[in-house]
Design goal:
This is Lysylphosphatidylglycerol synthase domain-containing protein. The chain is mainly alpha-helical. It contains 13 helices and no strands. Helix content is about 75%, strand content about 0%.
């Protein structure tokens, strides 16, 4: 009995020693939080509610404006749709190493925009594009690097567009942009020198492709400016072209701050800027709200249609080996 009791004591003692280590390694609370967040985000009702709330916010803002003409808004929307859903996917395709066609990139980009419009900082669009790359066999690290590179090229194009408009960037913004570019360049050189095998897994565009992507980004920014012109005309406002270009460039700087579409720092900067050059507050608020609402038209028509067709099984893509 004494020996048996000693064995039981040792077994229980060993379990007591092991149990805390298992609990500390498992971290049940963070996993529970992660599962809860995933469940909320993946819930169809939450997605629909977020979509309806975002569109409703834009509609409510536009409803504050008593007079809105449809024709100028449509005229400005057409080139914007081309810039958003043709130029931007072409930029992504130019730097992509996935081997997919331009049509594939156009579809995936359009699908991502709906999620981007209902998420802060357009982050949902990037996550969807990473997901779409993973579904065709691209490693998650490579997919994230590719989408991040596309974002970086777009940011360089944005800075170029701001410089073209003649807006003097604050010294802090110039320092941050130059520092970020320097860090990216140094990291790229170090990785290429120390880990040459990674260059075959991560996207490294040529200078020609990089410049091409920047030009596409500048063209896209021009279509946003055209949409803003049309929205101001649609609500009955008028503003000198050069002053509007300067206000547009300044507002794009505020776009680096996170915010939800239709109520972000960029929209706030646009309203304040338009009011500062003589546009009434009502017209300024209405023009910016109308611009935010018009973003949804091609997003729902193109992105929504592609998502519906994918759900119905129209787009079947063979999964290649991992790249």
């Amino acid at each position: 009995m004494a020996l048996r009791g000693r064995v039981i004591f040792l077994i229980v003692k060993g379990q007591a020693r092991k149990e805390p280590r298992m609990q500390l390694g498992q971290h049940p609370l963070p996993q529970f939080v992660v599962r809860s967040v995933r469940g909320i985000v993946a819930h169809r009702g939450v997605r629909v509610a977020a979509l309806v709330a975002a569109v409703g916010l834009s509609l409510w803002n536009v409803d504050r404006v008593p007079h809105t003409a449809i024709l100028p808004a449509v005229v400005g929307l057409l080139p914007f749709a081309i810039g958003k859903y043709v130029l931007c996917p072409l930029r992504w395709h130019a730097i992509s190493t996935s081997g997919r066609t331009r049509r594939w990139h156009v579809r995936a980009y359009a699908e991502s925009e709906i999620l981007g419009l209902i998420s802060p900082w357009h982050a949902g669009a990037d996550l969807w594009r990473v997901h779409r790359l993973e579904t065709i066999g691209v490693r998650r690290s490579s997919a994230a690097a590719e989408v991040a590179l596309d974002r970086f090229v777009g940011a360089i194009g944005l800075i170029a567009a701001v410089v073209i408009t003649g807006v003097t960037l604050p010294a802090s913004v110039i320092a941050i942009a130059a520092g970020a570019a320097a860090v990216v360049l140094v990291v790229a050189l170090v990785v290429r020198r120390r880990r040459p095998g990674l260059t075959t897994r991560w996207p490294w565009p040529s200078p020609k492709v990089f410049v091409f992507g920047i030009l596409l980004s500048v063209g896209y920014q021009a279509t946003i400016l055209g949409l803003l012109f049309a929205s101001i005309d649609a609500v009955g406002g008028s503003v000198p072209a050069l002053q509007l270009v300067a206000i547009f460039g300044a507002s794009q700087i505020a776009g680096v701050l996170p915010g939800v579409h239709g109520a972000s720092p960029r929209e706030g900067a646009l309203v304040a800027g338009l009011a500062s050059i003589g546009v009434s507050w009502t017209a300024a608020f209405g023009a910016v709200a109308l611009t935010a609402l018009l973003y949804w038209v091609p997003a729902l028509l193109l992105g929504g249609s592609f998502l519906f067709l994918r759900w119905r099984g129209w787009f079947t893509e063979p999964r290649p080996g991992t790249t």
